[in-house]
Amino acid sequence: MKTREMRFSGAGGQGLQLCAKIFSKAMTGAGYHVSMSQSYEPTSRGGLSRADIVASGETPDYPLATELDTLLILDQAAATASEGIIRDDAMVIVDPRRTKNPPEGNFKVIELPLSETAIRVGSERVTNVVATGVIAELSEDIEVKTIENVLRAISPKKFLDMNMDALQAGVALARGVKAA
Amino acid sequence: MNSMTGQANTVNLQGNKACALGAVAAGCRFFAGYPITPSSEIAENLAKELPAVGGVFLQMEDEIASMAATLGASMGGIKAMTATSGPGFSLKQENLGYGMGAEIPCVVVNVMRGGPSTGLPTRPAQGDIMQTRWGTHGDHPVIVLAPGSVEEIYQQTARAFALSEKLRTPVIVLFDESLGHLVETVALPDVADYEKTVRKWATGKPEDYKPYHGDADGVPPMARPGDGFRVHTSGLTVAENGFPTQKPHEVDALMKRLLGKVALNNDLIESFEAVECKDAEVVIVALGVVGRAARKAVKELREAGIKAGLFRPVTLWPFPTESFRKQTAKARHIIVAEMNAGQLIHEIAEVKTGKQKVTGLNRYDGVPISPVDIKKTVKEVLGHE
Question: Which chain B residue shows the shortest CA-CA distance from A20?
Answer without folding.
Answer: B183
